[in-house]
Amino acid sequence: MYGVCGCFWALRPRYKRLVDNIFPEDPEDGLVKANMEKLTFFALSAPEKLDRIAAYLSERLTRELNRHRYGYVCIALEAIEQLLLACHCQSINLLVESFLSTLRLLLEAEKAHLHILATNSFVKFANIEEDTPSYHRSYDFFVSRFSEMCHSDHEDPDTKIKIRVSGIRGLQGVIRKTVDDELQVNIWEPRHMEQIVPALLVNLEHSHSNSGSPAEQTEVCFRELLGRAAYGHINNAIKPVLMHLDSHSLWEGGGFAVRCFQIIMFSIQSQHSHLVIQQLLGHLDANSRSPASIRAGIVEVLSEAAVIEATGSVGPTVLEVFNTLLRQLRLSVDYQLTGYYENAGKQMTTSAQEKTLQDAVIKTIGSFANTLPVYQRSEVMLFIMGKIPVPGIYPALGSPNAGFEGSRMIQVMLLKSLLQVSERYESSNLLTALPSSFLEPLLSFTLMEDPEIRLLVLSILTSLIDRRQNAARITKVSGTFDVSVLEQKEDRCSRQDNLFIRKHAQRLYRHVYLACKEENNGPDHYKALFSLLAVLSVELVNEEVLVDLIRLILALQELGMSNQENLSVFNRCSLHAICAASLHLLSQLGLPPSLNHHVTQVIESRQKEQPQLLPENILCDQPRLPKEDLRVDKAFLFVQSKICDALTGSSYSAQCERLNTPYTPQLADEDRLSRKISISDTVSLQTAIDHESSSDPQVCFCVSKFNRSSPHLLMFHFVLCRNLRLIIFETLENTI
């Protein structure tokens, strides 16, 4: 009977006749719109016929496709699209299955224009919001096929671009259709992400900026994918990115990798940002034995990601972020000293490559610290300080193969990291910024022989004390420095500042004095010392502090006059120059005009007769040194009695008695023990303690257990007891 109906058109089912009527005699005429409206009305009136209509349309499309009559193929596909848009009922699922089967057929064809046609049709379908769920629909084929189109290498460049753009749009359609529907296939599964993400990244590498280019379409699709990612999906989306960058060696140079993660960080929900950071940190650890250029690229991406993720939440393990970065610094030191980053494979590295990595890690530490609130930055500074080999305290020095030079390099780099954190640290309370547990070990570094370490410590101290960014305004050390360029305090010292002065001021003065006695100080050290004195003068301005600073400056002048410390002519001239610049600055901070007159008179005398005693002439690229030994007449010195007379009769009269007492630094016990201690002493201390522990497993930290003949162990015992006393004191103080 079916064969008879096939011969007699009037006996065919109505839906077939309606379908046949939409096809014109000439395919170039396009779809017969009037007949299409009749077919649509029939489908809406009899929804139970939808599956048969769709099946017959699919049959007609297949027949025309096999006959290479592509005009009728387009008409059949357009008819199915219009039915999809018109029908929103439960039977639409039967229509969709036939529709998707038709698209599969077109995507499997060899003609590129059919692939594009099928993709455009799928995108239209993806934008349709369905009223009823589907339990058995699968998009695995489309994910695979669209991803393959994104990798198209067609011989015609224009066709290749069109195919790739279609593939990207197809993936975007799959994402829109499945990502928000829990009943659909889970697009976030690794097997799907491992196809989608690389397909997008391949096209993102192309930097075409014109609208419609693969890169532009890819970025839109990639942002949409990441923007829809929930908490549990972030890792599955990020892992293929890391794998792609690894397999294509895209970490080196950092340009594409940085751009890629900028898109990621700006697209995902802000509360999920720390998951990306954790993935990058884990990947950095996994690449610990990779070339320095790869590690530096990952670190650079981390730094840029931290800047974007500026919400103040790096995640639940803030210190673990810094622990990972500091561990990379230690490993880099080992690689730099040995010359190999993979001992088993004898993979060589160079000092320049490792230095680039170290600079990137230090910069990243600063970037991360800037995203944290103030209280967490304090914890980070204490954490970094705890990782630095401190004289007299047993630290973890990293690899035992690093040796003395390795330990020194670790100290320098960790202090540079600390400087990165401290430069943007903002706190109104100096007791919070410089607690005893942090200040004491930091000051101990001013007694190190290494000049680079001392310079870093001076910079860290200045940045933490400087709450008004005045250090940046001191561009040049001058004997005629104008204090008006600095931002000065309008009110008196707060209660916290006064407490800080009582607890730590004398210790600060003492270490400034001792730092000035170092023979290997250079111009940068004296400039840093002047900046520190200037910041102290402005931040802790009160009568007691100003008088103590004058006493300290006069003591430094006396140090420059004598040659007991075997200082060079340059060192002695620099001391006189620092004294002149510092006293001139102090004389402008509310002190009597007669003091400023005396200081100005001495500076003018030096300009005429002994210009080498002024900072402009000694702390420069080509210092003007005397041809013979330095001799300074009293006419070129600041006289204590004249300064005292200038202060008499003012509000500073009560301080004149203290001013008449020459400043003599009282060396504390820890200063005597730490004096001139070197890295080798620190490592020797570690070795001695390890030896004691191995010989007696039940060794306890008391004097009776130490070998009295070992000065290192005695020093360790003293510092340990001192730190315990500090902890007890601070605990009682906080309780009160």
From TrEMBL:
* InterPro entries in the record: ARM-type_fold, EFR3-like_ARM, EFR3_Homologs
Where are the bilayer-spanning segments? none
Which Pfam family, an example, fits this chain? EFR3_ARM
Q: What PANTHER family does its record include?
A: PROTEIN EFR3 HOMOLOG B, PROTEIN EFR3 HOMOLOG CMP44E
Provide the family line: Belongs to the EFR3 family.
Q: What is this protein called?
A: Protein EFR3 B
Origin organism of this chain? Ameca splendens
